[in-house]
Amino acid sequence: MRDENCIFCKIANGEIPAATVYEDDEFRVILDLGPASKGHALILPKNHFADLLALDEKTSSKVLGLAAKIGRAMKKSLGCAGFNLVQNNGEAAGQTVFHFHMHVIPRYEGGPKMVSWEPGKPSGEELAELSESIREALE
Ligand code: 5GP
Ligand code: ZN
Fold first, then answer.
1. Is 103 known to be catalytic?
2. What pLDDT is stored for residue 82 in this prediction?
3. β-strands 20-23, 102-107 pairing
4. What is the pLDDT of residues 7-22, one digit of tens each?
5. What does DSSP assign to residue 60?
6. Distance between CA atoms of 20 and 15, rounded to whole angstroms?
7. pTM recorded for the entire structure
8. Segments of the chain with pLDDT less than 70
């Protein structure tokens, strides 16, 4: 389950070197080359899945536990006060590498603002319409 043209397949499977913080049979966790903060890591499955919607159940069931393990180690080793999990799906969402990955971004006291947005002010009616629309589309 690899894609010959995928850079993260090559990195996850050790064909291209990367600063690795964790590896097992199914995952490699590497440091991001363009980090949002010191220690920014990427969780890569060794198999190729384009995004979350393509991910198989076996892999998805392990990702959050692994993210917690990495986040815990970051707090211990880097002294970060917290961390964000970011996982982009689709170009519109900012995905640039189409091999599923989860960002683990250490956050430091007094560090720059990131992973934030201006809260909207939807009406109760709008929220009701939206929730119904999504509920109806659930499979
Ligand atoms: P996305 O925008 O797809 O969620 O995130 C892709 C991330 O992969 C970016 O943060 C980018 O800096 C990182 N990245 C892209 N190419 C490489 C690479 O060859 N090696 C490493 N270590 N990170 C990469
Ligand atoms: Zn891939």
1. no
2. 98
3. unpaired
4. 999 999 999 999 999 9
5. H
6. 13
7. 0.97
8. none
Cα(45)–Cα(67) distance, integer angstroms: 12
SS3 83: strand
36 touches ligand 1 (CB under 6 Å): no
CA distances from residue 100 to 22, 66, 97, 128, 132 in whole angstroms, order as listed: 17, 14, 8, 32, 29
Which residue, chain included where needed, has tokens 């006291």?
A: 109
**Ligand 1 test: best mutation among 22, 23, 48, 97, most atoms within 8 Å of CB?**
97
Residue 34, classed as helix, strand or coil, is coil
Q: Which helix (H) or strand (E) holds 67?
A: helix 57-78
Structural tokens at position 17: 């070197």
Indicate whether residue 30 lines ligand 1 (CB < 6 A): yes
Which residue's entry shows tokens 């490699």?
A: 28
Round to whole Å and give the CA distance between 115 and 118: 11
The response to whether residue 17 sits with its C-beta less than 6 Å from ligand 1 reads no
